[in-house]
Write a sequence for this structure.
């Protein structure tokens, strides 16, 4: 009798131990998804952060998240998964955290998740088993993007601009080319979401843009996109001009307000134009030689022909046709030296003086000088022959008799 009682008690003890072992063998595995957004109802294209956190009371040998499917979003993972050890309710847990940046592509109520994490567990005795931990599902209400000036929509946490010039464009040296570098950085957006470069066009300006540079830096708080634009600019005329400002609207997701990014206006002028009056006059001999010559020859001409003298403007135009132009000599000297930049500067001045467009007549030379092509590819001598013909046609002399008839003069009969 006593033996049977001992046997029954021993069996009961084994059954309790087995049940306790079975309960202890069942690990505590949880995976939770949470949303972080700057607004309760974000706009289309606005960044939404999703955090997946798993807490596992088990020894994990292998793991992987199954394919994430988010059909109404574009998304990217913010770095690698972060693993850590901790204790909860006196028990040791292994934790994992994955962060995603989501960008909704359409308005409405959109579903996020559930997400699945496949784990391979070791029970401590060498036996392995595979399980899938499923997270909760989330709903997100998304508003359509609002109308903006120019139609460009850029939601971001912060946007900054760095607008740098390598020289003072208001006092350019003759023939100088200015370089403008603009860098735009947006926190909470990728580089692909940043706007395209503006078109820098003005009738008085020659401008070439280099290939843009776009980069995206991944941080745990979201991506940081950067775009860099670079232009090389120079005036095609001697008159000053002003490059207009360019505005880029963007939406501040933290303050929930529209803001404006500005590429500031810029004045272009050569330093010789803004030099103090009198400086150029002291260096020009014709400022005193020409009036002296006119004072000597006008009375003599009037006495010999016994008629009223020509006005100073007509005589000056005729003298200029007779006397060789100083810029013609300088242009020829630049051609003989092979100095393409000096040749272009002097030729542009002569063309502008006659009302011709330098950027049209000198397009091939500009392509070589400002796009980095080899200058040797331009035949300066052929270009010089064409330009001399153009200038010759523009300098067709006016008939002096036309002027006389316009003034009411007639030839006096002899005798």
């Amino acid at each position: 009798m006593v033996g049977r009682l001992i046997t029954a008690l021993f069996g009961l003890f084994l059954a309790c131990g087995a049940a306790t072992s079975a309960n202890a063998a069942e690990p505590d595995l949880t995976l939770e998804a949470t949303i972080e957004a700057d607004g309760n109802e974000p706009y289309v294209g606005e960044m939404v952060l999703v955090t997946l956190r798993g807490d596992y009371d088990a020894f994990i040998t292998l793991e992987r998240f199954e394919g994430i499917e988010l059909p109404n979003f574009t998304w990217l993972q913010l770095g690698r998964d972060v693993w850590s050890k901790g204790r909860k309710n006196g028990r040791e847990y292994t934790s994992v955290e994955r962060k995603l940046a989501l960008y909704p592509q359409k308005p409405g109520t959109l579903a996020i998740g559930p997400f699945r994490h496949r784990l391979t567990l070791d029970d401590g005795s060498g036996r392995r088993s595979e399980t899938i931990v499923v997270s909760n599902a989330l709903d997100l209400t998304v508003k359509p993007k609002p109308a903006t000036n120019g139609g460009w929509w850029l939601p971001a946490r912060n946007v900054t601009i760095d607008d740098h010039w390598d020289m003072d464009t208001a006092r350019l040296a003759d023939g100088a080319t200015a370089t403008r570098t603009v860098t735009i950085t947006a926190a909470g957006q990728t580089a692909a979401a940043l706007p395209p470069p503006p078109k820098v066009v003005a009738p008085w300006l020659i401008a070439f843009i280099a290939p843009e540079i776009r980069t995206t830096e991944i941080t745990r708080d979201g991506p940081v996109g950067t775009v860099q634009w670079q232009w090389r600019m120079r005036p095609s005329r001697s008159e000053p001009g002003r490059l207009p400002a360019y505005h880029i609207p963007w939406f501040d997701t933290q303050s929930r307000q529209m803001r404006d990014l500005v590429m500031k206006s810029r004045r272009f002028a050569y330093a010789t134009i803004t030099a103090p009056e009198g400086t150029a006059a002291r260096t020009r001999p014709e400022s005193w030689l020409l009036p002296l010559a006119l004072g000597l020859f006008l009375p003599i001409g009037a006495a010999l022909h016994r008629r009223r003298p020509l006005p100073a403007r007509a005589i000056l135009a005729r003298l200029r046709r007779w006397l060789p132009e100083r810029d013609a000599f300088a242009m020829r000297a630049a051609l003989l030296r092979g100095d393409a930049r000096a040749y272009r500067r002097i030729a542009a001045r002569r063309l502008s003086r006659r009302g011709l467009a330098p950027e049209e007549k000198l397009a091939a030379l500009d392509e070589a000088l400002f796009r980095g092509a080899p200058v040797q590819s331009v035949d300066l001598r052929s270009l010089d022959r064409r330009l001399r013909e153009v200038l010759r046609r523009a300098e067709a002399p006016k008939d002096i008799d036309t002027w006389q008839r316009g003034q009411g003069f007639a030839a006096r009969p002899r005798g």
About this structure: The chain is about 30% helix and 35% strand. The chain has three domains: 27-142, 149-268, 286-406. Residues 78 and 219 are 6 Å apart (CA to CA).
